[in-house]
């Protein structure tokens, strides 16, 4: 999991809270009319059920710095802001990281006459033109719950829902004349059938992409949508030939083709650590699992399903029986930190007649004085290899042994038996495997604890026991015996 889509803008969040509190007094219930907001700013308004952003203007208006920060805190995917807290605390210049997701078009993409535009790109968005006489009345509903989410009368406004995940929105717009005459001029229920829908996956994260992609497919099949999925160009070759009905593009390709400017709806998948208001996700991903959060965001069943990978037709890479391993990870808490664990496992496998093939990207990885090496006795197939080559090794392997990393998800998709060693994540965080190894007698599952915040800038992150003798005990105390006993089950089968 890369830090690209996990970082947050703490200052913006604080400013958003201040702005919301300042304007909350204007709205007392979902059906209370609100005064028009000055066109100089798009101000978030609070209500019991929803907090749409409303601005007065028929055309896109300039956004004040405060409103821009509020919008960033409320709805921007985490990781889009560059000046992270950690960088500030370390006295570093803020990094110029590329946004994790392409933004929604400035103006809604769908027209319904009367100068009104609407779409569902990162939430419901309705643009009402300015008028000098009479007013507009807009009602925004959740069609599945029956709740009125927003009610407003204005003489021209841009309305955007506070929720950016899939909600079956209903829109109703009434023309209220100066003499009080009313006429409903537009109603619409969100329906993605035969519509252009963009689903964005942040780049640079192999495991996350493979975990989420089956839910993109499920959305396309259940909704009947024409889905364009934006993802890393490095992962496309492993997926594209098995999903002919979904268009796979990189963000750069989508920008060039102006895909987002034609979209009826856009949804962004990610791990939103600091989304306390559930703007991007209906439930915290730490409660439901890394992969299942995509089902909740897209409004489809969270039941897990492996991705259908493009399997190799080249046959076995070696004739002997072998087991693939992957030991490296992005932070130390993800490693199997038992000092003799891998040596014991490799020795056991070789005594049983298996060759042990390491398919990590790097033979050595770490930082400072901590470096993790390829296990002694394993065969080195590390390097910047195509994913299709990794799939070939995995699909013919007797088993894969690794930590909670992207290669474990790749092995799952290749149909390989996965022995997963992890203490910092709860087993519900990953896919179901009968060969999950965790020691419940130690501290465990900090990744899935919403009370602690994962720090991508701290390679030695251990939120409960850092700099104590108990650091990384969650995996240090997973013994070689425990893993070997699990491997025995694989061999017996």
From TrEMBL:
Bias category Basic and acidic residues: which stretches? 84-96
Superkingdom of origin: Bacteria
Residue span of region Disordered = 32-60, 77-108
Which Gene3D superfamilies does the UniProt record give?
Glycogen Phosphorylase B (3.40.50.2000)
Where's the Autotransproter heptosyltransferase TibC/BAHTCr-like N-terminal domain? Answer: 114-173
Q: Under what name is this protein listed?
A: Autotransporter strand-loop-strand O-heptosyltransferase
Instruction: Name the Pfam families on file.
Output: Glyco_transf_9, TibC_1st
């Amino acid at each position: 999991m890369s830090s690209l889509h996990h970082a947050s803008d703490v200052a913006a969040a604080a400013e958003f809270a201040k702005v919301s509190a300042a304007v909350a007094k204007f709205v007392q219930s979902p059906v209370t009319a609100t005064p028009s907001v000055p066109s100089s700013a798009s101000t978030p308004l609070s209500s019991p059920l929803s907090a749409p952003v409303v601005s007065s203007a028929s055309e896109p208006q300039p956004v004040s710095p405060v409103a821009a920060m509020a919008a960033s805190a409320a709805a921007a995917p985490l990781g889009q802001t560059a000046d992270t807290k950690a960088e500030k605390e370390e006295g570093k210049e803020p990094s110029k990281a590329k946004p994790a997701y392409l933004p929604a078009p400035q103006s809604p993409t769908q027209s319904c006459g009367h100068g009104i535009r609407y779409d569902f790109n990162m939430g419901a968005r309705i643009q009402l033109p300015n008028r000098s006489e009479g007013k507009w009345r807009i009602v925004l509903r959740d069609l599945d719950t029956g709740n009125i989410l927003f009610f407003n009368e204005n003489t021209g406004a841009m309305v955007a829902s506070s929720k950016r995940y899939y909600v079956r929105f209903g829109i109703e717009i009434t023309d209220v004349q100066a003499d009080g005459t009313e006429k409903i001029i537009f109603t619409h229920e969100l329906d993605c059938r035969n519509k252009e829908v963009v689903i964005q996956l942040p780049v640079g994260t192999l495991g996350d992409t493979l975990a989420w992609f089956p839910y993109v497919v499920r959305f396309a099949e259940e909704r009947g949508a024409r889905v364009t999925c934006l993802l890393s160009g490095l992962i496309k070759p492993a997926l594209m030939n098995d999903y002919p009905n979904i268009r796979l593009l990189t963000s750069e390709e989508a920008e060039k083709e102006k895909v987002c400017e034609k979209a009826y709806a856009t949804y962004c998948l990610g791990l939103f650590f600091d989304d306390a208001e559930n703007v991007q996700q209906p439930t915290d991903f730490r409660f439901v699992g890394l992969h299942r959060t995509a089902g909740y965001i897209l409004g489809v069943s969270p039941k897990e399903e492996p991705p259908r990978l493009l399997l190799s037709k080249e046959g076995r890479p070696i004739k002997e029986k072998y087991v693939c391993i992957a030991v490296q990870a992005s932070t130390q808490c993800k490693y199997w930190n038992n000092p003799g664990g891998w040596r014991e496992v490799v020795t056991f496998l070789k005594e049983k007649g298996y060759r042990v093939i390491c398919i990590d990207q790097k033979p050595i990885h770490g930082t400072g004085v901590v470096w993790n090496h390829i296990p002694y006795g394993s065969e080195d197939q590390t390097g910047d290899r195509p994913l299709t080559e990794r799939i070939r090794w995995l699909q013919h392997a007797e088993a894969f042994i690794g930590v909670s990393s992207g290669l474990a998800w790749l092995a799952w998709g290749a149909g390989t038996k996965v022995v997963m060693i992890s203490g910092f994540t709860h087993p519900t965080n990953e896919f179901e495997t009968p060969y999950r190894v965790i020691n419940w007698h130690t501290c465990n599952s900090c990744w899935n604890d919403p009370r602690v915040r994962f720090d991508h800038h701290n390679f030695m992150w251990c939120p409960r026991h850092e700099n104590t003798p108990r650091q990384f005990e969650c995996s240090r105390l997973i013994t070689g015996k425990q893993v070997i006993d699990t491997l025995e089950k694989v061999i017996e089968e």
